[in-house]
Amino acid sequence: MPIGDLSNEQLNNLENNYLKAKKTEGAIYSLSEVRIEKLRRMPNPFGVRESTAKIIELAQASPDGLTTYGELWNAFRPNDPWKGNASGRIMSQALGRVAAYCIDNKLPIITTLVVRSNSKKLAAEAIDHIFEFAQGLGVDTGSDPNAFIAEQTEGARKLTKENLPPA
């Protein structure tokens, strides 16, 4: 049975069984495959491929090769001003889904190019979050979060909109 045919309840049960057993493999699908499938089913308020393409477009148009949360927000919601935590939650959900799309399609994690506007850097907590998120989805991250992020950022800068796989 393809993983896409499993119900949400079946996916949750598989994930919970892995966590209880403190294992990542052993059933028909690995823990990372289960988690990626769960993320694949989550809606993205801006569209997964569209969000990925927009990050590429905005980062390539920027002198430093980065874009900000605000620039990305304004690209999708030009008439809706940023509203603190509410907008932040929407962006977090969208970027999490984009990161999962990248991992699922063996692409560099493009969300490493989305930074805070005040510092134009990824915050330490963002670095840790992306690193742990990738580990949780079975990515070989190595042991150094900063080295992993630098590698992902370098790869992300080479992506083009035209070569993105379908979502």
Walk me through this protein's architecture.
The chain is mainly α and 167 residues long. It folds into two domains: 1-41, no CATH class; 44-163. The chain contains seven helices and two strands, in the order αααβααβαα. Helix 6 crosses helix 7. The mean pLDDT is 93.
Put the structure in a nutshell:
With 167 residues, the protein is mostly helical.
Q: Keyphrases for this structure?
A:
2 domains; single chain; two-stranded parallel sheet; mainly alpha; globular; 7 helices; 167 residues; 2% strand
Give the overall form: globular
Number of domains: 2
Helix content range:
55-70%
Instruction: Count every helix, treating DSSP H or I runs of 4 or more residues as helices.
Output: 7
Class per helix and strand makeup: mainly alpha
SSE series: HHHEHHEHH
Estimate what percentage of residues fall within beta strands.
Answer: under 5%
Q: Going across the biggest sheet, name each strand in turn.
A: 1-2
Mean pLDDT, to the nearest integer, reads: 93
How far apart are the first and last residues' alpha carbons, in Å? 21 Å
Largest sheet: 2 strands, parallel
Question: Which stretches are poorly predicted, pLDDT < 50 over at least 5 residues?
Answer: none
Q: What is the gyration radius calculated from CA atoms? A: 16 Å
Number of strands: 2
